[in-house]
């Protein structure tokens, strides 16, 4: 599947779906059309029972996402009406990313800045190359970083590091990002594909309902908004699933389980 004149490229190999932000001439800055394509792709991935994990990455090797495409702001956000239309499209993409039931991995190379960092923080796991840089330039632009993005940043790095990143607007390298908990793993540029593949194959082999229950529980705790009824339903779904029966059988028979996600 391809969308938005190839500015958003999607593919699926086995149980792993990949979304590529393909705007390398602008360091993969997100245009409004790309936000729309991202929403459509993520919704399709979430609805596809064959998809077990989703990978987000940027094209060109120089950037994951360098932020929003500011060159469009004059035309697309110059009036209250246009700003509302812009927000409706971007909100759909944020909602699709936040509601994704499958594990999401951000494979980061180069610049991961502003809105790009906000997208990466919505992923469940972040693997970055050593040349990656991270930052939020809001204080240098005179704008407020969104509430959800600040909450994600706070949950990952804590109040002190979050304030440093937001107040200074300076960029940090991959090693510092790893040290403060902004990312999960740092690899050499040549090792990124292998690291992502190893992780996604592990996730694709695991029980989808179990991972979904874990993801929703962690996200609810992180946002201090616990829906115990929903979490109970997820637990019951796991217990009553054929996957749980398969997991028990595979354990007793000392073989690899074959999970179906139901």
Q: Report mean pLDDT, rounded to a whole number.
A: 91
Please report the total strand number as a whole number.
Answer: 11
Radius of gyration: 19 Å
- Which bin fits the share of residues in helices? 40-55%
Largest sheet at a glance?
A: 7 strands, mixed
The helix tally amounts to 11
Beta-strand proportion: 15-25%
- CATH topology annotation of the largest domain: 2-enoyl-CoA Hydratase, Chain A, domain 1
Q: How far is it from the N-terminal to the C-terminal residue, by CA?
A: 25 Å
Q: How many domains? A: 2
Q: In order across it, which strands form the biggest sheet?
A: 1-2-3-4-6-8-11
Identify the CATH homologous superfamily of the largest domain. 2-enoyl-CoA Hydratase, Chain A, domain 1
What is the H-and-E element order?
A: EEEHEEHHEEHEEHHEHEHHHH
Please report the first level of CATH classification, the CATH class of the largest domain.
Answer: Alpha Beta
Structural class: alpha/beta
- Inertia-based shape: globular
* CATH architecture group name of the largest domain: Alpha-Beta Complex
Q: Please mark out the parts with pLDDT under 50 across 5 or more consecutive residues, or reply none.
A: none
């Amino acid at each position: 599947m391809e969308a938005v004149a190839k500015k958003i490229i999607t593919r699926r190999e086995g149980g792993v779906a990949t979304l590529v932000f393909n705007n390398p001439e602008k360091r993969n800055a997100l245009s409004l059309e790309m936000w729309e394509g991202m929403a459509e792709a993520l919704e399709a991935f979430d609805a596809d029972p064959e998809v077990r994990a989703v990978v987000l990455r940027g094209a060109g090797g120089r950037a994951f996402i360098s932020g929003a495409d500011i060159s469009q702001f004059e035309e697309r956000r110059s009036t209250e009406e246009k700003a509302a239309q812009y927000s409706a499209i971007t909100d759909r993409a944020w909602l699709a990313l936040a509601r994704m039931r499958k594990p999401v991995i951000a494979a980061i190379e180069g610049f991961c800045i502003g809105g790009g960092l906000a997208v990466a923080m919505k992923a469940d796991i972040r693997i970055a190359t050593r040349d990656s840089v991270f930052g939020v330039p809001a204080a240098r632009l005179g704008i407020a970083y969104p509430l959800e993005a600040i909450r994600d940043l706070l949950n990952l790095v804590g109040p002190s590091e979050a304030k440093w990143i937001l107040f200074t607007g300076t960029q940090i390298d991959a090693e510092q990002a790893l040290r403060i908990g902004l990312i999960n793993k740092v690899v050499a540029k040549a090792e990124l594909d292998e690291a992502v593949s190893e992780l996604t194959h592990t996730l694709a082999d695991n029980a989808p309902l179990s991972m979904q229950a874990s993801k929703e529980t962690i996200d609810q705790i992180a946002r201090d908004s616990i829906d115990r009824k929903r979490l109970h339903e997820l637990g019951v779904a796991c217990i009553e699933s054929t996957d749980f029966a398969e997991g028990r059988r595979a354990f007793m028979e000392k073989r690899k389980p074959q999970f179906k996600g139901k």
